[in-house]
Amino acid sequence: xxxxxxxxxxxxxxxxxxRLSCAxxxxxxxxxxxxxxxxxxxxxxxxxAAISLSGGVxxxxxxxxxxxxxxxxxxxNMVYLQMNSLKPEDTAVYYCAASLxxxxxxVVTTSRGYDYWGQGTQxxxxx
Length: 127
Hints:
Layout: E1 2-7, E2 10-13, E3 18-26, E4 33-39, E5 46-51, E6 58-60, E7 68-73, E8 78-83, E9 92-99, E10 116-117, E11 121-126
Parallel strand pairs: 2-11
Antiparallel strand pairs: 1-3, 3-8, 4-5, 4-9, 5-6, 7-8, 9-10, 9-11
């Protein structure tokens, strides 16, 4: 089992930046593909970004391409989401997730492919 704890959320003005962190504990972190999801009130949970086991392959939702960057540090059991040029529509609870179904060149882009989830961190972007 893997435990995931997100941090770094908060309130920011439009155009600002935030860096989310996700600390993993438990089983070998490098065996898991990782992803960031978000869910706004009244909306379904959606993929934001995903990263392969070694970090060599990444995926971004069209809505965040060019603004967000996912990365991981397997020596520290951490995954990050750097969010720049934030927009009010980025407001949501952001979740970190771990998947056993990824690979060194494979990312997992659906929520059903993830086995473990963090508790979420709120990101609010004011206009």
